[in-house]
Structures are given as structure tokens and as C-alpha cells.
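User: C-alpha cells for both sequences below?

Assistant:
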Amino acid sequence: MEWIKRSYTDIKNGAEEGNLDAICALGICYSKGLGVTQDYKVAFDYFKKAAKGGDVEATFQMGVAYAHGFGVEQNFVESVKWLSSAAHQEHPGAQDSLGVRYATGQGVTQNDREAIVWFTKAAEKGYGVAQFNLAIAYVQGQGVPQDYYQAYIWFSLAALKGDSMAADSRDSVAECLEGKQQLEANKIIKEKLAKEMLAKPN
């Protein structure tokens, strides 16, 4: 989201002009206390306004707000509604969060296989948290057959984004693989990483 990189004054002016991305960015400013006093209720109101206008990031933020009770009463059913909307619009954060809801059964019927569907969608987009969650699922055999080879691949990709826990988990899982398997996995990791880089906006 480019707007959040701008000054608070620019964001506020853009929001006053009705720019949906700016309205969402203003919500993030209030949610995180960036340039203003942190106020979840004000943030929620901005997110709701932008989301109703069709802003995907704001739609995701609405799902987060309902999940954690930020500026609104916690409601997992409402959270799933907003997360699902953003996830179907290919928002990786929403896809991962929706996967978590299915994995935990919060606001939706618990379904490990459905969780894997959403973790995978986000992980393939290069979303590190989803890559870690998907790797954990492969280690535990939750929603997928237990597969240390796949777990190694996804832990590695998450680790490359600075996740120290993923790095430790990758090293542990590596002990379960033969040398040839690691070499094959490392080739796939490079291919997936290259794909992620190409998909990044300029």
C-alpha cells in the first residue's frame, strides 16, 4: 500500500478528497499510532468507510478488527465474513487469516483441509506467515499427509523473509531428509523465490 509511505498530512488530505486507499491508510495510522494518538475506534470507522467503498486492504483490516476486538466488539463470524471477501479478491494476508480461522474453528466450522487451501494460496504469493503456517501443517500432518520435504521447502521460504523461528524449524526438519532430498528441495525453493520476485510490483 503506497499511501502509508506518505506523510500523515498527505494521507489526511487524500482521505478528505475521498481516495479509498488514503482513507484506509488513515485507518492504519490510527490503528498503529502513526503520526496520531492510537485510537482503534477511529481506525475502525475509517476501515469501514473504505471497505464499503470496495477497498480490499480495508476489507482485510475489518476482518482483523473483528477478530481481535480492535475498535469493535470481537466477533469471529463477522471477521470471517470480511476476511473471506478480501481473500476471494486475492489478498494474501486475508487468505492466511482465513486459513487460521478454518484451522481453529473460530467463526466457521473447523476444517483443516480448507485451512490448507487458503494457506497455500497465500504461501504461493510469497506471504511469509502463510508459508510458516503451511510448513507447520506438513510437519503435523494437519489437513495434509505428513511431509517433511514440503515442510522444509516452506520453512525455508519463510526463513528467507527473516523469520528466525522458521529458520530453526527448517534446520530441525532438514535432519529428517536425505542429502539428495535437500538438494532437490533447494532447487524448488530457488524457483519459488524467483517466482515471488517476479510477482512483486515495481
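Moving on to the next sequence.
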Amino acid sequence: MARMAAKTIITALAISSWASFGASQSRKDVPPAPLPEAIARAKTAFLTNGGGSDLAYDEFYAQMKKWGRFQVAPSPSEAEVIIQLKYFVENGGTKVWSSTNTYTGQTQVHSRQITEPQLEIDIYDAKTKDLLGSVEDRPRLAVREKNREKEMINSADRLAFELQQRIEPPHPEVRTN
């Protein structure tokens, strides 16, 4: 009996310490890693569409022009970095499951393709063509074409914002007492 109580107490302590550790960690607690110096000091960028969505590229291009951090170069040879936006759908295989009607006892088997759309920015050194960094976003799934377009635009906006935050992180407020 005492042995069972000890196991219960140890298990409860383990779960509570694990839960408190998990609760104390959040995305806000993790500072973004610095980007390579080549990206931080670059003044010119060639923006290119790696394929998949002209709409996302057009929105990303507009956001980059609006930001004004980089002078958009007309060709890769005139840029310090190349920023490529690409859209792709990752195939996660097929999910198969079954359900049984408890009244009739009939079992039905269901399946569906698991797909995950993604937008990704790859940043390359224009001279060496080395990959310097990547940022990705996953547009939310939508059934209607109009909503898919909205999600594509929102995803491109989030990518542009994420890139801005990594290159020019917001400065913490300075408090004076």
C-alpha cells in the first residue's frame, strides 16, 4: 500500500514538473536567431518567384517595395542577395480510418490525402549562390477559391513581416524611473 502511494506521489510530481516546464516555455520566450551578416548588411536584393503562386509573389514583392529596406535590383548580378519566394504543397501521404455504426454493425472505411501548402522564402548570396537563410509560413486551408486567395495573400504578408522582424528587430522599450 505504501509502495503504491509512493508511486502515485512520484508520478504526480513528475507530471506537475513537466507541465510547469512546458507552461513556462512559449514562442515569446525564444528570441529569434540573428541572420547572417551578409543579409543584415545587404542594400540591394533581387526578388524572384520560385514558382507555385503568382499571387503570393505579387503580394510579397509589393510588401518588400513598401518596406523599402532593400533597393530592388533588376537582375541577380546587380544584387547583393537574392530573395526567392516559392509555394509548394507537401504530400503527407494518406490517412485511413474506419467507423462502425453501432446500430447496424456496418463498418465503413474512409481515406483522404494529407496535404500541407507552404510558402517559403530562401535568401541566397548573389555572388556565391550559397543559401543564407529561409523563412516559411503555412497558409490556412480553405475550400473556396476566394478564401484560398486571401490565405495566400495573408501568408505572403506574414513572411514579409517575419523577414522584417528578423532583419530589423523591434527595440525593447526603455524605461526611465
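User: Anything stand out in the second?

Assistant: The mean pLDDT is 81.
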